[in-house]
């Protein structure tokens, strides 16, 4: 850089011409006497001990003579301290002539020519800094005080003086260079003046140099002298510290001028900041020149290079203890100095990458005065810190960072060489320099000299400076290189020479595993290169075997991991290794038999990707066996599920099971199987089958089930996050479709074992002592119940096993009641009516009830004839009435409901229709029952039959007369007999007074009214007497002729009119409790509620709306996922929303990914969740005709939820995938009303497809911009947050929005309304200015970036929390194309499940349906007594029941 310029080093080293006084030619005693006499008089005028006086020196020659005296006085021994002090005070006061206001004691000649005299005074003051022969502590302290006085004066001049000429600036800088060289160039001796002053003099030198660059830029000779002088001071630790401090301040200004204020800034103390007046050009020139002032930092690892100075040579010649210069004791600090230098370079690299928060640093020590540490001290502390960064401190790279090539042009030569210090590769590369231009040695071409010839043999080096002592510095270089290459942007190209050098350096460092302890080099690579395989680096797969060995060395270690000479925890290092591992798992099946060629050919043969798969899978399983860290376990569980899913899909796509003799299985048979000893005697397997290979889908399936279940019971049951991740993995395994085997279902025994383990886990968690019961514990139990439900739904044949069914029912009983009927085998069972309800918690009870509903209603019945989109029947009151009257016009809603009788029994809402359906002409008693329970809505048509259907035809039973027998001709003898009511002698009995006690009827007639009534009664009696007589005579005539044909018994005709609702309620025992009243209720067992039947008023206001709201409350959880496509560099919300304009304009894999998430549905007729409340659960508008499989509008814009959406469902969950578009929703008011009813938004789940991975840094801003620019959504949701709740029946469109839970988000664009999530009930209205916490919560985002090798990189972002991140997708995972949609969908479902678990006020769907039924019962019940109820039950008018 300065080869064409002359150095001023001679002026620095040869100070005699400028600092020698004429008094030095006199005897020392005479000189001291003259100095003492002269200086004492001059010091008296300074105003230090007395009032200041004008200087007695008038002429210039007087001043010159006195300056010769003072020059000699500054070189006196420290025994003349008072004289030296007066000399220093005189010069310091006279130097104020350069300030705007000089002092009174300054001679007139100095005032007139301040720059000339100042240059002479600075040259004379160099004598003060020359080390004295007397190096006692008192002498050193006195000299140091005087030196500090001079340095403060120099600082004042440079900051305040405006009169400094260029020559004065040059003299000033040369003065500081000379002073530093005097103190720092000699080898360090403990506690000498140089050891005491090196921080101070170096700090002033760099500070003044920066001021000079701002006010009077130094000429090239000074820069060259500065660099040469610094090379002589490299054995001083303070040089690197001060250089790092200055470079940090300059870099902060440089980044601001180059990249603008938006680039992350470095934190620089105000006192160390670069002057604001310094121009951008001056900052750039100064930054580059100071960067190279200390030369190549790698040379600090060579004791021979550092000690190749004249001072070290003189010391070695004069000292008997030191034979060679590189053996000086002070060089023992070189490892620490080298580490600080490389650390400083690494910090500069971080600054250019935009990393402003380095790893945790120890607090900088304070100086002796107790002041706060300066930037130099902070830099020293940073340099002394560990080079290893913990995985939690993820690098936040700046989007506008420079390219990797630019950074490597600046620092690459140093970093590559530093990363190979102490290795044979560096020596061989130096030997081939100039002979070959191989890429692996290209980084050495920038060096113009080599120190290899000067490097002594290792046997000659002191123990303190051997190659292994520089490991920390090498680790810093490796970490910095990894960060640089991991900062590669999506479409960025890195020079092949840099890539080759990087791979060579990493391969060499990864091969260093001689001991069980992890070296700092290996730790630095693992901690800083977790994303190395996710960046599309050309040829990076050549490192895969070496990385696999390194990861195996960490994860599979049977002993606790420790890093040599470092305090990095083993769990952090294992976490970094796990992150690398999960990015490798998808590579073998993707590249299959492709051979891997390593950078350096070693002894081992080349391997293919498939040959690495058994080792990777075995490493994952062995790591799970011994891992204890929560985060590590979660990542490995996600990776294991991804492996199983990917293997199953791979085998399914190949339409064949893996060949037992395939290379993968052959490799796996040779590899040690860590689970070979794991077997369960209680579940014997078919011994005739060969055990599956560890890397096959079935082998992974079997091992994953056993391993996870075993660890879940033994080690993970007390950890919430690991338990949830394990349960998510088991639920994911239940959904994996293995290839069907010929003889039996695939792995039925393993499935049975998994369900048994889950039930045992639930029992164990419920049986823990009361102090252990907490929200987290109950969350794991709830998740376990759901996991059991998934297994039963996916494997319904498990219910065919009697033992499994018994275990399931016991667990359900335990969850609902809190205990089992038979706690232990052999104990007498406790009857359910004798048990008390004491569940572990209401959440556990509700989860057990949900499992019971699934067990009874969904297992082996899903999907129902209604289809996957609906668990309930599509029949409603309106459709049933249409079936009853096919040709009639649709009745009004209220009139239609009036034809049904509504009752509530427990949590069952029963609607009875007594009219026969139009397609049934059988006159049997028929009732149509529409039942709405906690789980679903069902429709039943019941007929009362007394004969089998083939014998109960209408004509056969009623029209045919069996006839009567013929009468006999002879008649029986009849004897006439007249009945007598009183004896014949009654008239002969005399009348007594008692007989007259009853008055006659005539005597009681007192008035005309009584006489009229009496006559009327007599008339009626006469008529009745005549009729009876006529009947007797007619009977006598018929009797005389024989038999009476009119009195023959004939069967009555069958009834054609029925009150079937009464018959149904009576036959099904719904009327028992109503008849007995409250007394019977007390006799009911405590384990079940009463079945008292309550009639509802169907004509009440709002009944129809509440009925629709109940129908819209589904048994399944409903969630919405928003899918975005972000082009390269897009940050504008409008452009992101319009990316899906057409299918042809988007990436083909993106469209394929969309269709793998779900199937298209037409929201106008879809009976399930659509992502928008106002169009969901549309049973009223359902048409039998199925919508087309592909929407008519091509492109993801059709999936915006306005007409089409992507839908996926099982028996437990519904998910709508919506691609937002600029189109406005059709009913914004309905959405606003729904939001008001729920109390505000909640964060959604977003899936973002990135063309450029770096755009994930700006996507949150994009999402907020979407929110702010979507005017309709803004107005709707703001009204929802501020308005008061309104009744559900006042919602627009004549029907309330479905109750799918608490949902929506502040990051939601216009057309995306909500992810439905069953969370807490609506909170009370907010006070003015209050803001809900949910509105401030960031959304959970899954970023997907397609790599050039057609694999996909995953990045997760979400709010902090105990249960934030769910599996199987984990941060940094690389997944294949075939499994991407499955894994994203499972992750979305698991995230939503965790959100509900985190909120203990969340109610399952069946509980919310129960609550709605109870609300309708309280709101619309008819308060009647039992007689009134039965009376109304017999009423013909249906509206009265």
Which labels suit this protein?
1441 residues, 5% strand, eight-stranded mixed sheet, five-stranded antiparallel sheet, single chain, elongated, mainly alpha
Plain-language structure description:
The protein is mostly helical and 1441 residues long. 45% of the residues lie in helices and 5% in strands. The protein is elongated. The protein starts with 8 loop residues before the first helix and ends in an 8-residue tail after the last helix.
Q: Gist?
A:
By secondary structure, the protein is mainly α. It has 51 helices and 15 strands. It is elongated.
How do the strands and helices of this protein lay out in sequence?
Blueprint lengths: L8 H5 L2 H4 L8 H16 L16 H14 L7 H14 L13 H5 L1 H11 L12 H24 L5 H19 L8 H23 L4 H13 L4 H23 L20 H12 L11 H4 L3 H9 L15 H20 L21 H10 L19 H15 L5 H8 L39 H16 L9 H15 L9 H9 L15 H12 L14 H13 L4 H5 L3 E2 L10 E2 H18 L3 H25 L8 H8 L26 H18 L5 H16 L12 H19 L8 H20 L7 H16 L24 H16 L19 H8 L8 H6 L2 E5 L2 E6 L12 E7 L4 E7 L10 H5 L34 H4 L11 H34 L18 H8 L4 H5 L1 H4 L11 E3 L7 H10 L4 E10 L6 H5 L10 H10 L1 E4 L41 E6 L3 E6 L9 H11 L6 E6 L8 H11 L1 H12 L57 E7 L5 E6 L16 E2 L4 H19 L6 H16 L5 H8 L8
Parallel strand pairs: 8-11, 8-12, 12-13
Antiparallel strand pairs: 1-2, 3-4, 3-7, 4-5, 5-6, 9-10, 10-11, 13-14, 14-15
Helix pairs in contact: 3-4, 3-5, 5-8, 7-9, 8-10, 9-10, 9-11, 10-12, 12-13, 12-16, 12-17, 16-17, 16-18, 16-20, 18-20, 18-21, 20-21, 20-22, 22-24, 23-24, 23-26, 24-27, 26-27, 26-28, 26-29, 27-29, 27-30, 29-30, 29-31, 30-32, 31-32, 31-33, 32-34, 33-34, 43-50, 45-49, 46-48
């Amino acid at each position: 850089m300065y080869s064409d310029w002359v150095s001023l080093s001679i002026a620095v080293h040869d100070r005699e011409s400028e600092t020698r006084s004429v008094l030095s030619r006199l005897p020392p005693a005479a000189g001291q006497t003259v100095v003492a006499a002269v200086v004492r008089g001059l010091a008296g005028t300074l105003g230090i001990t007395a009032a200041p006086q004008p200087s007695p020196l008038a002429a210039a020659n007087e001043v010159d003579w006195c300056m010769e005296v003072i020059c000699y006085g500054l070189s006196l021994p420290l025994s003349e301290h008072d004289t030296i002090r007066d000399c220093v005070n005189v010069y310091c006061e006279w130097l104020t002539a350069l300030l705007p206001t000089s002092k009174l004691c300054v001679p007139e000649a100095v005032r007139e020519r301040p720059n000339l005299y100042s240059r002479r005074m600075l040259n004379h003051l160099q004598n003060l800094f020359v080390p004295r022969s007397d190096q006692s502590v008192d002498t050193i302290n006195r000299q140091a005080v005087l030196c500090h006085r001079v340095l403060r004066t120099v600082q004042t001049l440079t900051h305040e003086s405006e009169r400094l000429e260029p020559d004065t600036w040059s003299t000033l800088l040369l003065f500081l260079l000379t002073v530093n060289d005097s103190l720092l160039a000699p080898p360090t001796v403990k506690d000498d003046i140089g050891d005491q002053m090196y921080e101070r003099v170096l700090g002033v030198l760099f500070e003044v140099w920066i001021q000079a660059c701002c006010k009077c830029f130094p000429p090239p000779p000074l820069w060259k002298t500065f660099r040469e002088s610094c090379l002589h001071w490299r054995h001083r630790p303070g040089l690197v510290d001060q250089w790092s401090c200055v470079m940090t301040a300059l870099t902060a200004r440089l980044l601001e001028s180059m990249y603008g204020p938006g680039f992350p800034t470095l934190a620089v103390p105000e006192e160390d900041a670069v002057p604001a007046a310094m121009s951008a050009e001056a900052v750039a020139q100064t930054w580059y020149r100071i960067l190279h002032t200390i030369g190549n930092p790698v040379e600090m690892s060579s004791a021979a290079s550092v000690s190749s100075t004249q001072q070290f040579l003189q010391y070695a010649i004069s000292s008997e203890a030191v034979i060679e210069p590189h053996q000086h004791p002070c060089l023992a600090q070189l490892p620490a100095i080298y580490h600080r230098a490389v650390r400083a370079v690494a910090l500069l690299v971080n600054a250019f990458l935009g990393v402003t928060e380095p790893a945790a640093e120890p607090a900088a020590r304070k100086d002796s005065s107790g002041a706060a540490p300066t930037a130099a001290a902070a830099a020293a502390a940073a340099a002394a810190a560990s080079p290893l960064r913990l995985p939690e401190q993820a690098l936040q790279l700046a989007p506008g960072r420079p390219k990797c090539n630019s950074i490597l042009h600046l620092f690459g030569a140093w970093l590559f060489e530093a990363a190979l210090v102490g290795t044979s590769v560096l020596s061989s590369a130096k030997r081939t320099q100039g002979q070959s231009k191989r890429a692996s040695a290209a980084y050495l071409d920038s060096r113009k000299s080599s120190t290899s010839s000067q490097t002594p043999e290792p046997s000659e080096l002191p123990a303190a400076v051997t190659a292994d002592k520089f490991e920390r510095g090498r680790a810093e270089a490796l970490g910095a290189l990894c960060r640089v290459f991991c900062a590669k942007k999506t479409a960025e190209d890195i020079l092949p020479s840099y890539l080759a050098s990087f791979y060579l350096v990493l391969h060499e460092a990864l091969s260093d595993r001689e001991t069980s302890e992890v070296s700092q080099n290996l730790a630095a690579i693992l901690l800083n290169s977790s994303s190395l395989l996710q960046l599309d680096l050309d040829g990076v797969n050549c490192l895969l075997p070496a990385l696999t060995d390194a990861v195996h060395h960490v994860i599979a270690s049977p002993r606790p991991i420790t890093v040599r000479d470092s305090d990095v925890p083993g769990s952090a290092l294992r976490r970094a290794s796990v992150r690398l591992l999960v990015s490798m798992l998808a590579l073998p099946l993707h590249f299959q038999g492709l051979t891997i060629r390593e950078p350096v050919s070693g002894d081992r043969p080349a391997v293919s990707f498939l040959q690495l798969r058994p080792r990777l899978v075995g490493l994952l399983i062995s790591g799970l066996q011994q891992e204890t860290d929560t985060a590590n376990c979660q990542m490995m569980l996600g990776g294991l599920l991804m492996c199983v899913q990917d293997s199953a899909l791979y085998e399914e796509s190949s339409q064949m099971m893996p060949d037992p003799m395939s290379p993968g299985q052959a490799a796996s048979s040779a590899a040690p199987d860590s689970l070979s000893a794991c077997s369960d005697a209680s579940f014997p397997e078919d011994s005739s089958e060969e055990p599956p290979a560890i890397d096959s889908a079935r082998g992974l399936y079997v091992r994953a089930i056993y391993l996870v279940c075993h660890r879940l019971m033994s080690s993970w049951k007390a950890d919430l996050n690991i338990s949830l991740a394990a349960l998510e993995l088991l639920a994911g395994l239940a959904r994996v479709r293995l290839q069907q085997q010929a003889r039996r279902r695939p792995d039925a025994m393993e499935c049975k074992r998994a369900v048994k383990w889950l039930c045992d886990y639930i029992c164990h968690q419920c049986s823990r002592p009361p102090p252990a019961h907490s929200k987290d514990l109950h969350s794991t139990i709830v998740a376990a119940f759901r996991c059991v439900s998934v297994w039963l739904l996916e494997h319904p044949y498990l219910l065919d096993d009697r033992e499994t069914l018994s275990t399931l029912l016991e667990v359900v009983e335990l969850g609902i009641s809190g205990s089992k009927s038979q706690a232990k085998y052999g104990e007498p069972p406790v009857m359910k009516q004798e048990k008390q309800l004491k569940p572990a918690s209401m959440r556990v009870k509700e989860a057990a009830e949900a499992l019971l509903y699934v067990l009874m209603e969904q297992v082996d019945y899903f999907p129902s004839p209604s289809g996957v989109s609906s668990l309930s029947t599509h029949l409603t009151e309106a459709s049933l009435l249409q079936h009853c009257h096919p040709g009639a016009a649709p009745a009004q809603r209220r009139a239609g409901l009036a034809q049904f009788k509504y009752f509530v029994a427990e949590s069952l809402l029963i609607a009875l229709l007594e009219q026969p359906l139009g397609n049934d002409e059988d006159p049997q008693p028929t009732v149509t029952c529409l039942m709405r329970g906690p789980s679903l809505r069902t429709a039943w048509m019941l007929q009362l039959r007394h004969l089998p259907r083939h014998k109960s035809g209408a004509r056969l039973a009623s029209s045919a007369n069996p006839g009567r027998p013929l009468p006999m001709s002879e008649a029986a003898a009849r004897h006439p007999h007249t009945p007598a009511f009183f004896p014949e002698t009654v008239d002969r009995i005399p009348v007594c007074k008692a007989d007259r006690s009853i008055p006659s009827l005539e005597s009681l007639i007192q008035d005309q009214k009584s006489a009229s009534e009496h006559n009327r009664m007599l008339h009626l009696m006469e008529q009745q007497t005549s009729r009876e007589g006529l009947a007797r005579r007619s009977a006598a005539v018929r009797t005389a002729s024989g038999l009476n044909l009119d009195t023959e018994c004939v069967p009555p005709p069958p009834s054609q009119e029925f009150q079937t609702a009464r018959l149904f309620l009576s036959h099904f025992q719904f009327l028992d409790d109503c008849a007995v009243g409250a007394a019977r209720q007390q006799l009911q067992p405590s384990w079940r509620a009463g079945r008292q039947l309550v009639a509802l008023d169907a004509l009440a206001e709002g009944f129809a709306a509440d009925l629709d709201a109940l129908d819209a409350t589904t048994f399944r959880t409903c969630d919405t996922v928003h899918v975005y496509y972000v082009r390269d560099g897009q940050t504008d919300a409008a452009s992101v929303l319009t990316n899906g304009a057409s299918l042809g304009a988007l990436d083909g894999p993106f469209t394929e990914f969309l269709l793998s998430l779900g199937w298209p549905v037409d929201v106008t007729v879809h009976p399930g969740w659509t992502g928008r409340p106002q169009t969901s659960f549309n049973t009223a508008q359902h048409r039998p005709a199925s919508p087309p499989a592909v929407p008519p509008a091509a492109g993801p814009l059709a999936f915006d939820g306005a007409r089409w959406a992507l839908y996926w469902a099982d028996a437990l969950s519904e998910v709508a995938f919506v691609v937002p578009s600029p189109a406005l929703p059709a009913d914004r008011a309905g959405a606003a009303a729904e939001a008001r009813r729920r109390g505000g938004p909640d964060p959604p789940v977003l899936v973002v497809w990135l063309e450029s991975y770096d755009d994930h840094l700006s996507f949150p801003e994009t999402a907020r911009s979407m929110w702010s620019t979507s005017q309709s959504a803004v107005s709707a949701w703001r009204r929802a947050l501020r308005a008061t709740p309104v009744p559900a029946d006042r919602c627009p469109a004549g029907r309330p929005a479905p109750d799918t839970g608490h949902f929506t988000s502040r990051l939601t664009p216009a057309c995306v309304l909500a992810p439905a999530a069953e969370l807490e009930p609506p909170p009370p209205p907010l006070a003015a200015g209050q803001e809900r916490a949910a509105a401030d919560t960031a959304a959970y985002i899954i970023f997907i970036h397609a790599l050039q090798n057609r694999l996909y990189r995953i990045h997760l972002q979400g709010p902090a929390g105990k249960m934030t991140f769910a599996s199987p997708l984990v941060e940094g995972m690389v997944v294949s194309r075939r499994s991407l949609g499955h894994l994203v969908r499972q992750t979305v479902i698991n995230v939503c499940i965790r959100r509900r678990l985190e909120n203990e006020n969340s109610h399952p769907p069946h509980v919310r349906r129960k609550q709605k039924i109870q609300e309708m019962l309280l709101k619309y019940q008819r308060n009647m007594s039992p007689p009134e109820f039965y009376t109304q039950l017999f009423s013909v008018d249906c509206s009265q029941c």
